Amino acid sequence: MKKMGCEKFGLWLFFVASVQFFLKAQCINVGITYVQDAGIKGAVCLDGSPPAYHFSDGFGSGINNWLIQLEGGGWCNNVTTCLQRRDTRLGSSKKMVTQLAFSGILSNKPQFNPDFYNWNRIKVRYCDGSSFTGDVEAVDPATNLHFRGARVFRAIIDNLLAKGMKNAKNAILSGCSAGGLSSILHCDNFKSLLPPTTKVKCLSDAGYFINAKDVSGAQHIEGFYSDVVTTHGSAKNLPISCTSKMKPEMCFFPQNVVQLIQTPIFLVNAAYDSWQIKNILAPGVADPHGTWHECKLDIKNCSPIQLRIMQDFRVQFLSALTGVGSSLSRGLFIDSCYAHCQTEMQETWLRSDSPMLSKTPIAKAVGDWFFDRAPFQKIDCPYPCNPTCHNRIFESKDHLE
Fold it and tell me: Is there a smaller number of Cβ atoms within 10 Å at the N or the C end of the chain?
């Protein structure tokens, strides 16, 4: 019996080691780079520390190709919420880990990232709370808060141009969540900073936040974005093609901006985006009794009424996409998963069990679109029709706003 127990224990150890090896094989750890001279231009994080990014060098045929991935992490909309971020990794480069795992679209393995594995791959850290749109000169000595997101973006791009991106043959500005919104808002600006000979396209992952009422009927997210724009002085750094037509805070919503973008852009988004369900449709302020709590943790916990409300949200989301247009330069991968951010994780970017639309995983759809091998504009059928979905399941301890 003891021998059998040892054999079982040995098999268990072998299994654990195999899983660890497999996970390690899927990603690489990349060190941090601080843009120390950015402070001269006032381009700093909320706490005044220098901006930072992680850089994995391109090689082989990808040596002159550049993929910029903007980190997500929500926003802060007033002094109180910005102070809460100031001394965390979302407000200070002093609090950031010095090694970051690259996987998914940032992987350096051809089997996990066939089209971009050998590009120069950069993960830009997010420490300003405004999707890189803020620019307020004054700094209140009482809080030491610096609202300089737009300057941070420009300083990092200038730093990368000096490191070789000025010779780029191909370039992608991408991002997830608040970073996905950044890739939309800065898309044309990014292209303008590169040589006219560079093939430039943008990719937004889970960045298509819509202007929808919450379950109480209030315009919660519109008011929130209005406060973000006011606090960070964002108006002058939002696309003028939008701000010339409507209030600046309305230009934080991609549905009011995307039709004005000249650069080719691809949108990867869940129609039941878990962040938007939790924070736009059913935020805590609209659900004082917590009736949506279990539903937001796991879509399988949702009642028939809640599912019907979520189906209505999907209809609103698809309606907000109409401005994208039918141009083949625009790509769409809109699945019916309960998810948020699907390009940075290997399991959803490209694996044998990854989410698919028309038998196509996200990685292939994006690669085909970028290299003009084939257009891709697919919208999934309603939940729960897609068996390939990786639906997010959150724990009760996870923060729900």
Answer: N
**For the chain, what's the residue count?**
401
End-to-end CA distance of the chain: 52
What does residue 110 show for φ and ψ, rounded to 5 degrees?
Answer: -60, -30
pLDDT in tens, 221-255: 999 999 999 999 999 999 999 999 999 999 999 99
| Strand 99-102, strand 199-205: pairing | unpaired
CA-wise closest residue to 207 among 152, 261, 145: 261
**Active site residues per annotation:** 177, 273, 340
Cβ atoms of 331 and 265 closer than 8 Å = yes
Beta strands at 356-357 and 360-361: parallel, antiparallel or unpaired? antiparallel
Gap between the Cα atoms of 401 and 399, Å rounded: 6
Partners of 200 in the beta sheet?
A: 171
* Angle (CA) 36 42 47, round 5°: 75
For the four alpha carbons of 74, 78, 81 and 83, in that order, the dihedral sign comes to: positive
Q: How confident is the model over 37-96, as pLDDT tens digits?
A: 999 999 999 999 999 999 999 999 999 999 999 999 999 999 999 999 999 999 999 999
Domains and CATH numbers, the chain: 28-210+253-272+320-379 (3.40.50)
Kindly tell me the sign of the dihedral angle through the C-alpha atoms of 258, 263, 264, 269. Answer: negative
β partners of residue 332: 267, 377
Residues 6+ apart with CB under 8 A from 73: 90, 126, 129, 177, 178, 179
Q: How far apart are CA 356 and CA 358, in angstroms?
A: 6
CA distance 140 to 181: 28
With the CA atoms of 291, 292, 297 and 301 taken in that order, what torsion angle do they form, in degrees rounded to the nearest 10? 80
> What is the Cα–Cα distance from 387 to 383, expressed in whole angstroms?
10
